[in-house]
Specification:
Structural class: alpha/beta
Helix content: 25-40%
CATH architecture of the largest domain: 3-Layer(aba) Sandwich
Strand order of the largest sheet: 2-3-1-4-5-6
CATH class of the largest domain: Alpha Beta
Distance between the termini: 52 Å
Radius of gyration: 20 Å
CATH topology of the largest domain: Rossmann fold
Strand content: 15-25%
Number of strands: 9
Shape: globular
Length: about 300
């Protein structure tokens, strides 16, 4: 039976790339539901994740970073983030206080203004500042953009002030019954998390343009007794990228596969056989069929 005054609703988390949205969502939920990297544009899909509390249920939308898109993939990512704004009861705009204010922030502010949804500003990565008074000019800059319902300095990495942020988000949700069962965590299937865990290892082990030029599609996912057999294709755009990703004697691909397999086994709770294949497909980020396989829906694109 739900307690009197229980609140439940949707919180859309938006911001520029690398603002720490996924780190914060993972912290609030108490489990890893989104991959994390120090590289921008890590999140490509909208992830719904449920945070259950005694007094509330927050349904969080972790969205791709809002940026100027250069490919069909990026356009779909940004469209996903913008469309998610209107689906929330409240929006959390997360800002990296270590980043210089720029046109991207003005674009986010204008998008939020048009949406007409209450917006809470979260100033993330305050652990970078020894003197918190340095935050005052940052707060003043953003307050000129929108009439925020709250402004909260936090550190998603250390957890500083995150509980207070959660309390404030709850206070802006409507009273009502939980929207999802207590054991419901996310709307994404197991295949999605498997592909993301593989991609996270690629992000961690490669440099320069490789992380942005790779995509992962799970081609096969079969349970064979106590073993799960998974085959996945890693897409790259050029032959030299394939060579880098495979590595000398296959060393790089083997390392990616070994680390990803361990994470997937922990996630699924079973032994996993993981087969990885690298495929060159020029301009795959413009391919509607590949993007569709990755869960990035959108308009029709040229193949």
């Amino acid at each position: 039976m739900t307690a009197a005054g229980f609140r439940a609703g949707f919180v859309t988390v938006v911001g520029r790339p690398n603002a720490g949205k996924s780190t914060l969502v993972n912290h609030l939920v108490g489990r890893k539901v989104a991959i994390v990297s120090d590289k921008p544009q890590t999140t490509r899909n909208r992830i719904l994740a449920v945070c259950n509390r005694k007094d509330a249920q927050l349904v969080l939308f972790d969205t791709p970073g809002i940026h100027k898109p250069e490919h069909s993939m990026n356009r779909r990512m940004v469209d996903t983030a913008v469309k998610s704004i209107g689906q929330g009861d409240v929006v959390l705009w997360l800002v990296d206080v270590g980043e210089r204010f720029g046109p991207g922030d003005r674009f986010v502010a204008e998008t939020l203004r048009r949406a007409g949804v209450p917006v809470l500003l979260g100033l993330n990565k305050i652990d970078l500042f020894k003197d918190k008074k340095q935050l005052l000019p940052v707060i003043d800059t953003y307050r000129r953009l929108l009439d925020f319902v709250e402004v909260v300095p936090i550190s998603a990495r250390t957890g500083e002030n995150v509980d207070r942020l959660a309390d404030l988000l709850v206070s802006h949700l409507p009273e009502g019954e939980p929207l999802y069962p207590e054991d419901f965590l996310t709307d994404q299937p197991e295949r999605f998390f498997v592909s993301e865990m593989i991609r996270e290892r690629i992000l961690a082990k490669t440099r320069e343009e490789i992380p942005y030029s790779t995509g992962v599609v799970v081609e096969s996912f079969k349970e064979d007794g106590e073993l799960v057999r998974i085959e996945a294709t890693i897409y790259v755009e050029r032959e030299n990228q394939k060579g880098i990703l495979i590595g000398r004697g296959g060393a790089m691909l083997k390392a990616v596969g070994t680390e990803a397999r361990r994470e997937i086994e922990a996630f699924l709770g079973s032994k996993v056989h993981l087969g990885l294949f690298v495929k060159v497909k020029e301009r795959w980020r413009e391919s509607a069929s590949v993007l569709q396989q990755m869960g990035l829906s959108g308009g029709r694109e040229d193949e």
